Amino acid sequence: MRDLVLNNCRLDGRYDIREKLGRGSYAEVFLASDTRASTASPHRMVVIKALNVFLQNDLDPDLERTLVENFQNEAISLDRVRHPNIISRLGHGTAKDLRGTVFHYLVLEYLPGGDLARQMRERRLSPQNALEYLEQICAGLAHAHRLGIIHRDIKPQNLLLTLDKRVVKIADFGVARSLGSESPITRVGTNIYAPPEHSPLAVGNTSELGIAELTPAADVYSLAKTTYTLLTGESPRHFANHPITELPIDSRNRRWSRDLSRVLGKATRNDPSERHQSVLEFWEELSALNELFDELDGRVVTAVASRRHTTPQAQIALGFSPNAPQKPAFDTSKKLKLESVLPTTPLSKPKVPPYEQKRNPLVLEPPVVATPEKILEPSPPVVEIPTTARGRGRRFLKAAGTLFMLLAVFAGSLLFTYNYLLGKPIFSGFSGTSVKTGTATTDINLRPAPNTSNRPIGMVTKGSKVEILQASNNWREVVIIKHGRPKSDPAYADKGWVYGSYISEE
Q: Using CA atoms, how far apart are residues 134 and 126, in angstroms rounded to an integer?
């Protein structure tokens, strides 16, 4: 078992690897920046999912072929079910790591908002907020089912959020299967969320299932367990491989608890034929509870309940395209044409000589003149200059110096006035004297610090002009110069941190 060596390098002449995000049983995941993408592009930062067959201890040609085929099928499945609430594949390739190991990789969109499991650890969702996420999940999952793809591993860890936390997308189609597939169905998923017919806890002497048919009811089961987590704030650990029969104690006295328990109980029955047979059927019953979700921050809302959609509606984030990239055709190591694989190059910062680091650019150093070891020609004779002549020479030099300084001050004043009238910086060559500005390409949350672990203090609306004060990784501290549209709340701040990918710098 050995990891790929991709730290601080440029992959395939395009992707600069920033950090390693994780590792699975057959792949490693990295965060990278696409050097060919615009700084304003929502896909400037991407995820590289690299197939590493050497993570398997007992690798043989058959296992390698299976892993490569599964990796290619994941790309095909993602392209087939392309949807605003399903993570998009942006590209693919084959490359070498810094050690010369050849591997295949997929380029996926990066969702910096984290997954719903982390979101639940940070704060409990309101019922309305949870239902908004569930509607998007149901929209994406129903779309996949219509196209014959079963995800088989729905859980909060595989549901990723955009930076503004408004859009959720289904990720990790690595174990997805097509309806009607004749190959054996293996046990997958996390035992807390996996249906009993797929659960790893039920593994016997073989990892293959005893049932022959794969249906959407398997995803409905996992979706119901996920719904339990989002609405109650607790994991369904006590109901692993069992139907949900009750809610946690602090949720049992809510107006919606009995109806929710009934819906989840039906969706998690052990017999797949007794569950909801489609995601749309499950959503229809779940969304009917919307008018009962009337508790918000401990206060009862007396206003009319928000309108519910009987058919789940998709939520589109910036950068989504329905068009899939070129279809990959990966080969095993024996069939690879290694001469066509680009080498991976390390990224190194240029070394600055110590003298250049300490030198003040505003001070002109005198030229260094080499002194010869021997004087080959005789010294010229010393000529005595009369005292009166020396006095006249000194007065002349002093007058000339004074005139030169006056001319320099006059020329500098003219230059200053000219640039001031044109609105140009006076010393544009020195850092810190020019003002950086930019334009917001979409609505962006304004935060008090360069991270998403704090609550927004305002919003930079689309089209707003901002002055960029400083940068920290992909974050920018900005001051709003001109709002794209009037503030929705007068108390919103005009200064704070935003994610730099959504600022088009000028």
A: 12
